[in-house]
Design goal:
The chain is an alpha/beta fold. Helix content is 36%, strand content 18%. It has a single domain, classed as Rossmann fold (3-Layer(aba) Sandwich), CATH 3.40.50. The longest helix has 27 residues.
């Protein structure tokens, strides 16, 4: 009986120690502040830059937005010449489907972009976003770079080499030049069973060999799924109280 009482006493002491320590642990746990909501009326998609510069995987070390465009857009025969326009259209159509009339029409952006008289040796993606945003009265600008875009068999001597696409997208606030968001897609299609950790991704791509355009389409959807949820479009309301068409 004495042993039972001793065990019970030790158990109760442990409970008391735990209860005494628990509030301290909870108090020391850092609180997570809610993300500040960013409202926008107009979002523009700038033409995607094509070049061999690869951004740093570490987001804090990625200085792509501050690089001169001439250092990014170095002609590379290994990158499909249509990569930039194709990705630009994909990003635009995906965002337009999501945000509707809050996205500036691509033709309007192209006209404004052509009028900027860009200097590749001085301008950067950030200054371009600031100037383009001001020209279009856009609250936000999406700008991107692509450094790999090839179809299956595009590498000489490797006819079975699969499609491969790599690009980065950035969301910039033109008024301040602040980068709000970044996402990188870097994928080379492989057999679904080659890497089981990526099995689900391979299945989502489809059980067939993709073209570079198809892989890019998949990549844009994947990247924009991570588009920040605290970035919210403002709905224009007419005097009748209905959403403006």
């Amino acid at each position: 009986m004495k042993r039972s009482y001793w065990i019970l006493a030790v158990f109760l002491v442990c409970i008391l120690i735990f209860l005494a320590a628990a509030p301290v642990a909870w108090a020391e746990e850092p609180s997570q502040e809610p993300q500040v909501e960013i409202f926008f009326k107009r979002l523009a998609v700038a033409p995607v830059f094509v070049g061999h510069r690869i951004p740093s995987i570490d987001e804090t070390l990625d200085d792509t937005l501050s690089c001169k465009i001439s250092e990014i857009c170095i002609e590379d025969p290994n990158i499909n010449a249509a990569a930039g326009p194709m990705l630009t259209r994909l990003v635009y159509s995906t965002l337009a489907n999501r945000f509707g009339q809050n996205v500036v029409p691509m033709e309007t952006v192209q006209t404004a972009y052509a009028d900027l008289r860009m200097d590749d040796t001085r301008d950067t993606p950030r200054t371009l976003s600031e100037r383009l945003g001001k020209s279009l009265s856009a609250d936000l600008v999406v700008v991107g770079t692509v450094w790999r875009y090839r179809d299956k068999g595009a590498i000489e001597g490797f006819p079975e080499k699969p499609a491969s696409v790599a690009f980065a997208l950035y969301l910039v606030e033109p008024e301040t030049g602040r980068r709000i968001w970044r996402d990188i897609f870097d994928e080379t299609q492989e057999y679904a069973l080659k890497d089981m950790s990526k099995f689900t991704d391979r299945i989502k791509m489809g059980l067939k060999w993709l073209t570079a355009d198809e892989l890019a389409r998949y990549g844009v959807k994947q990247a924009l799924r991570a588009f920040p949820v605290n970035v919210i479009p403002q709905v224009n309301v007419s005097s009748e109280g209905k959403a403006a068409q």
